[in-house]
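Final report, Chapter 2: Outcomes

The project's central promise was a pipeline that accepts a single protein chain and returns its three-dimensional structure in a standardized token representation, suitable for archiving and comparison. That pipeline is now operational. To close this chapter, we reproduce one record exactly as it appears in the project archive, with the input sequence first and the structure output second.
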Amino acid sequence: MSEQDKAARNWKLVFGVLAAVTLAIILGWVIREVVQHLSSIGHSYHQADEVSLLLRRSGC
């Protein structure tokens, strides 16, 4: 294997690792956003349950 082939292989490895790290960061961010969105939906449902419970207790 020539020096040029080794250098090309090293660059491919470096770019592969960079691409994998970038993809992992993007996926982590997307997953975090989805989880936050779902938990905020669950929180608003929980608040609505509390409001309806208070309304029932007050006789409305």
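Archive annotation: The first helix runs from residue 3 to 58.
This record, like all others produced under the grant, will remain available to the consortium after the project formally closes.
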